[in-house]
Amino acid sequence: MTQRKNVLFIMADQLRADHLACYGHPHIRTPNLDALAAKGVRFDRAFVNSGVCGPSRMSYYTGRYPSTHGATWNRVPLSVGEVTMGEYLRAGGHKLVLAGKTHIMVDHKGLERLALDGGSELARLLKTGGFEEIDRYDGHHEPGEESGYPAYLRRHGYQSDDPWTDFVISARGPDGETVSGWHMRNARYPSLVEEKHSETAYMTDQALSFMERMGDEPWVLHLSYVKPHWPYIAPAPYHDMYSAEQCLPVVRNDAELNNAHPVVEAYRQQEECVSFASDTCVNTVRPAYQGLITQLDDHLGRLFDFMSRNGLMDNTLIIFTADHGDFLGDHWLGEKELFYDTVQRVPFIVYDPSPEANATRGKVDDRMVEAVDVLPTMLSWLGLPLASHRLEGRDLQPLLHGKQPPWRDCVFSELDYSYRLARVIRDKSPSNAKAWSLRSDRWRYVYWLDEPEQLYDLHADPEQFNDLGRSAEHEHIREECRERLLQWFTSLKRRTTVTEEEVERGTNAYKKAGVFFGQW
Amino acid sequence: MTQRKNVLFIMADQLRADHLACYGHPHIRTPNLDALAAKGVRFDRAFVNSGVCGPSRMSYYTGRYPSTHGATWNRVPLSVGEVTMGEYLRAGGHKLVLAGKTHIMVDHKGLERLALDGGSELARLLKTGGFEEIDRYDGHHEPGEESGYPAYLRRHGYQSDDPWTDFVISARGPDGETVSGWHMRNARYPSLVEEKHSETAYMTDQALSFMERMGDEPWVLHLSYVKPHWPYIAPAPYHDMYSAEQCLPVVRNDAELNNAHPVVEAYRQQEECVSFASDTCVNTVRPAYQGLITQLDDHLGRLFDFMSRNGLMDNTLIIFTADHGDFLGDHWLGEKELFYDTVQRVPFIVYDPSPEANATRGKVDDRMVEAVDVLPTMLSWLGLPLASHRLEGRDLQPLLHGKQPPWRDCVFSELDYSYRLARVIRDKSPSNAKAWSLRSDRWRYVYWLDEPEQLYDLHADPEQFNDLGRSAEHEHIREECRERLLQWFTSLKRRTTVTEEEVERGTNAYKKAGVFFGQW
């Protein structure tokens, strides 16, 4: 009899790797994630495959890079032709349950094309991206019927048609007026929602209720928090838990603004970057951002305690990560998307309860991992087949088990900025506003369509201050990077309608099919 | 009122460009195709996007390269997620009618996944690749119920369960015995089928009947012959219309066999290449191959005559091309697939009856065109929108109308040889048996996964005898080619769920969606 196995795949939204204590932050308190890392493996060099929610998450959910899955930005639906985590799991007899955010956009045209726009079970699953939603909540807009959060808030006394806007992201200003968390100046005030009714608390409650309901039944849960993503406003006491002095120093210098890369320069003209150019903004937002992280950690403590008490720490694979980081003013930038470790590097902690993983408990692994690795790792843990004709990521289980397989020496990330003002500023068409980046131990390289390249020597310049993208003496490095990028493109998996095993069986089998060409 | 417009898209199977009189063959008689070229434009440098039936045709039918459409070889079904010619035409109010071959493989798993495996109209269309089949006939295997050809043969006295095998590709040997066209030694004998009942005659009859039935109704017809593809056996009088002396000299030399590219060397161990290494095989097959071409031309004459008599030459766009060529012993190779113009270059004649095209009638255009250009050209002629978020080819209408738009300077083709014996000989996995080729005016370059590159200087060596793929002094050329290949990869269209117009409308439109991030 197979032992019961669960998976808990936790995602934070817009959480920088360097904002956890176990990743070296000198002031943030994240004892529960630190404890998870002490029991599992902390991957120190984990990267997303796109620095923005939608495409990054679709890489987690499909095990494929954005150039393959095609959902290259937040507003681009994932094609119904793409197979997601939920579908692989379902084929193996598991349900993939969701509490929180996915950023799945429904491919309405694709469904309509295939006459799948009715109310069928299949259409429902395709619309959710394969998730069984116990509570889907994408945050930062009024939730629809898929989330019980607005009704929950009203039940707890937050009377409003839109309690999220009126309470969760609102605060009381100095003169008693209501102010909005959409304005970053208000990040200093506590949210009008009580902490126990906040988004993070609510979604943790959902996960706890789910685990209680499941009892001894096995499960796979994606617990996906919308925080510490903006609007940056924390409930008391987290709103003033940290001072500006307890934040990392902002990483930027004046030299960066001279001779900047034209797309980076265009990004800096966008409102979020203009705002974050002010120290006041940085010093107002960062403490709230940190408070939201400690709050998240506190609730994870509640969850992990429950799991420990109920034996779930013995049979549950736990993956904790994020969809991307946040500039928070670094490099005179706000938000995300661009190719700096600030945004591209994420926390990535894996706890594998199996005895095979005992050798690596508490270890830090600096091999490079990517978002696309989560799905194959999960399938492998559950003993399900890896769809090697589709999945572009790698199973991390050998690493968790202390093995030393040949491993990648660089990671890849992509950006489609066609929907952004920066694209308009650069006067480009929606089809040529794209970039691909390669990040090796030493180099961060970016290939932009119709724009100069970027190159950073991370050994000499770990903060990425000095762009060597137009330096003549580094042309040979850029050339090597282009070669490596070409190799990566040739490795993408487009032959999705046949498995590798089917190809093996069909190789040189013409005569069996009654075809006898080539005989004299 | 819009004038009625038809499209006749004619494809020959495995027809080399240099095997038509208008393309310079000194002996073959193809007066009807020559006349078509004299009325239209003959593209002298037209190339397929893969040198093998399935992926090449799927590029014609989707307007996308194999790396994008994913049907990389004959046995790889086109994903139901891919939109084909028939679907674009249907959206514009046209039916795409088929007489002949498509090589569409049904994506059974994709249909099953989307619960489209029933008998619905939609499932039927997805199974045919969007074609309305008046008679689908892929040749070289026993046709299924989709073709009326076996019943037709039986009605005309060819009594057999499998009249194709017993008559169409059979012949009478010197001692009166029945011999098979599967054996190339028998290419010298006439087929047991009467010419008027042959595949080429039958399919032409289908097209004629269709045009008669349509009367004054507009139509779009894909007339897709299975010849001169093997089995190489022609009905009388075409079987001995040409002598070996009337064939092009075989293009090969002993030097090619020394230090050959390892994959080309592996191909040469496959049966078709072993057979074609003999002059006897070359001299037996080529005359029959040429006979099949003249036969095809004769039937096209019959079709064009009918069209002229019925006014159809005034309102029908005619495109004549092929899915790839045939080595016929050149370079010690048989069949196709590899990256020589012999196989990659195809005849490509376009007749546009509109007055705008009068300036180019009878002209030879040496701008480079590709298989992916057919679909956008057809849509443009019909006044239908070009799906610029999916189509990777270019509209040829400006060229037909004498314009000089900025144009491509190279073409791309691909190969997945994972099903071939050559892959086994090279001891490779099914995932790393791929190649991409770039062909510019001067260079033919091939990038192979885990194999040396190939490079030919077509100015100095138009026949591709001298592989410079490992020549140190040509490294800078190969590097340029790799750069160009990388650019091409970055241009592929994977963001298929939104149109470029939708991206434009959604650009910088966050606030309209109630999202106000970045404000201080």
From TrEMBL, chains A, B:
The keyword Hydrolase applies. It comes from Alcaligenes pakistanensis. This is Sulfatase. InterPro entries: Alkaline_phosphatase_core_sf, Sulfatase_N. The keyword Calcium does not apply. Residues 5-106, 137-383 form the Sulfatase N-terminal domain. GO terms for molecular function: metal ion binding; sulfuric ester hydrolase activity. GO terms for cellular component: cytoplasm. Keywords: Hydrolase, Metal-binding.
